[in-house]
C-alpha cells in the first residue's frame, strides 16, 4: 500500500499520516533502547558520529549542526539506492514546534524599533507564535520509539532537516532540530540522534562505516551493537 501523505505546499519534507514505513523498526527484536540510540539490529557495522563543533570543546546535545548534517547526508547518499525516498522522524517535544507561550520568548524583542515619541505608550501585546505545522499535522499520529513520540516525514535525503516549518512571525525564521531518526526506503542504513546525546548513531554496510571513518569532515568512532556499549 502506498503511504498516505498529508500534503502542504509550504513544506519541503512531507508529513506522513501513515506510519507503516517505520513498522520494521518497531518490530525489530533488539532492545528498544538500543534501537533508539544505535538503530535496528542486522546491519554489518555501526558507528558514532560525534557532535563536534568548530573551535569549541563542547558537543551539541541532540542536534547535528548544518555542516555536520550536510557532510553526513553527502556520505549516506552514496550508500542507498533510494536517496529520493527517505524517512525522517522529529521528536514532538521541542517547544518551538508547538508555538504559543513555549516559543513566545523567541519573538519577544523582534520587529521594528519604536519611535521615541511612543516609548511610553502602552504597546499592544504580540500574538504568540503559531505552531510550526498545520493543524492536521499537529493533531496527526505520532511514531513512538522508546517512549518518545515523533512526527514522521518523507522526502529526498538532500532535504534532511528542511521541515518547512512556519516562521515565528515578525521576520523571525523557525529553525528546528536535525532529524532524530532517518532511513532510506531500501533500509540500507539507519541514523538516530538522541534528544540528549552528544553523538549520532549510524548502522549500515561495512563500506558505509569505513567511508564515514575516513571522512575528514566528521569525527567518527566504531560502535558495538550491545546495550553495555551505550554507557
Q: What topology emerges from the helices and strands here?
A:
Layout: E1 14-15, H1 23-27, H2 32-37, E2 45-50, H3 66-76, E3 86-91, H4 95-98, H5 101-104, H6 135-138, E4 143-145, E5 148-155, E6 181-184, E7 190-193, E8 199-204, H7 206-214, E9 220-222
**Low-pLDDT sequence parts:** 1-11, 109-115
Major β-sheet profile = 9 strands, antiparallel
Tell me the overall shape: globular
Radius of gyration: 19 Å
Helix content: 10-25%
Query: How much strand?
Result: 15-25%
**Assembly state of the chains shown:** single chain
Number of domains: 1
Number of strands: 9
User: How are helices and strands ordered from N to C?
Assistant: EHHEHEHHHEEEEEHE
Name the average pLDDT.
Answer: 86
The end-to-end distance, rounded to whole angstroms, is 40 Å
Question: Can you walk through the features of this model?
Answer:
This protein is of the alpha+beta class and 231 residues long. It is built from 7 helices and 9 strands. The longest helix is centred in the N-terminal third of the chain and has 11 residues, at 66-76. The radius of gyration is 19 Å and the shape is globular.
Question: Tags for this entry?
Answer:
single chain, 231 residues, nine-stranded antiparallel β-sheet, 19% helix, globular, disordered N terminus
In short:
The protein has 231 residues and is of the alpha+beta class. The protein is built from seven helices and nine strands. Strands 1, 2, 3, 4, 5, 6, 7, 8 and 9 form a nine-stranded antiparallel sheet that branches.
